[in-house]
What does this fold into?
Amino acid sequence: MKEDATIFDVNIFVFREESEWTALALEMDVRGYGTTSRSAIEDVIEMLTAQVSYAVQMGHPESVWHPAEEMYWRRWEEARRKKFMAKASGSEAPTDQIAELVPLELLASKQQDEWITESA
It folds into this structure.
């Protein structure tokens, strides 16, 4: 990550659906999938990076802002509360639903009259 990069924290709710993990970026209603929670998070970050970069390059960054359904926000809040309570009590946090705050580097930037997209 560059020192002068613009960072936006994304609320990501990670949960299991049958044999696959889903990572849902709540502010943008974008999903990533994987066989592990970590791979699902990596997948959603790739999806967000592509979507945000394209929207910024096209001059419409607001087009990515499409919040997920309210029930997912509530489930994220509950998972975050459980994570806090586990840390505060010294116990292990549940692993079936995970609340993460993931920094997303806003990758597309305009330099002179050219769009430059950088790797995260």
The first helix runs from residue 37 to 57.
